[in-house]
Specification:
Layout lengths: L2 H10 L2 H8 L5 H14 L3 E6 L8 E9 L2 E8 L11
Antiparallel strand pairs: 1-2, 2-3
């Protein structure tokens, strides 16, 4: 196993990435923690933000580059759906 593969595996087993993989929506602080880990490990990534509208929730897309032909993509909802018209 190449060293970068070990780094990526170690990254994906952190609590932050476990939450990203298990949750429908995460908090901004968790997304910041994930990008901090990527920077600390020197793993290249792109982060895109799409603001929410009345039709779609705000999302961030995190693309982690493993090698020139392999990426790991996360589409992360930054908000959960709420009740309609304030009704629960």
């Amino acid at each position: 196993m190449a060293s970068y593969e070990k780094e990526v595996l170690a990254l994906l087993t952190t609590e932050v990435f476990k939450k990203i993989m298990k949750s429908n929506a995460i908090q901004l602080i968790q997304l910041n923690a994930a990008t901090n880990l990527l920077i600390k490990l020197g793993i290249p990534f792109d982060l895109f933000f799409l603001p929410g509208t009345r039709r779609q929730a705000a999302v961030a897309e995190l693309v982690i580059f493993i090698n020139p032909t392999t990426t790991i993509d996360f589409t992360i909802s930054l908000e959960t759906g709420g009740p309609v018209l304030g009704l629960e």
